[in-house]
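Re: Re: token formats

Sure, here are both.
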Amino acid sequence: MPAIMTSRQAAELNHAFERNGWTAEDVKELSKGNTLAKILRDLRGQVETKKEIKTEALIDFFGTVTFSARSEKFNPRDNFVVDTSKNAKVKIWGLGQRFEEEFLDKIEESSDGYNVCYGNLRKPLNKSLAN
């Protein structure tokens, strides 16, 4: 039986789960029963709704940035370097501890290129952040 997704697609799905705060337990729960069948019907537009559900947009989108394909790996330690000299490609005065912990050891594999949308949250997603 052929694979349902490529290793690249599996990695993208994994990053999407991480980016949206999913845990391994959440993914395990998602895999139970017919939850994925329901999501697939919704994804393909096959869900019949009895009433219109109004949702408020959470993000005001500003635009999209296109990242070109690259054949080599991206090492953050080589690219995020504290350097304020006049010859610096990008002047970086300092890196926060959390940035260093979260990103400096994450090596990105080569890429076919991709688009990233950016915007502004209309309100905090987590009520504890609003206080």
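Second one below.
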Amino acid sequence: MFTGIIEEIGTIEKIEQEGSNFHFCIQSDISDQLKVDQSTSHDGVCLTVTKVEGNRHWVTAIKETMERSNLGQKEVGSRINLERCMKVDGRFDGHIVQGHVDTTARVTNIIEENGSWLYDFEYDSGDVMVEKGSICVNGISLTCFNIGDHSFRVAIIPYTYENTNFHEFQIGTVVNLEFDIIGKYVRKLMTMT
């Protein structure tokens, strides 16, 4: 489990396909602190570390993950948000994030607001969002507002802009979304007969 508080931005150095699996080699300042078999969030996707060598680590994504997330659009040189799993004795700074991407969204508008930024997103899935509720975008715990049927907005402060890959987003950028798990359970319970 994660909290959506990004620790580091890594750089993809190598992508190799083996059958339907894709192996990613990522360089980062926290790679040397990871261990094999550890769950780590990569742009909000929970992946298992398979190898660590110095400041590089490897993870593998299966076909389902590649199709459901933005990992299939990543290239060598792409920057990726990283978060290690939550420690039991740590502070819960964001919200409950599982690392299970529900769908992707596209950036439709970026507004600079004298030191902060507003980002608008559109997505196809009909999952539940509530005004001022939690949303996970590329692994980042954020508050959503201006909720539409398939759209929402988030506000980004300078710290988040500089310390995540939000500063690389452009109109059309595809991001990973994980909807709030509590909302998903409530929706499931409301539709049960």
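The helical segments are 63-68, 158-163, 181-191. The chain has two domains: 8-84, 103-191.
- S.
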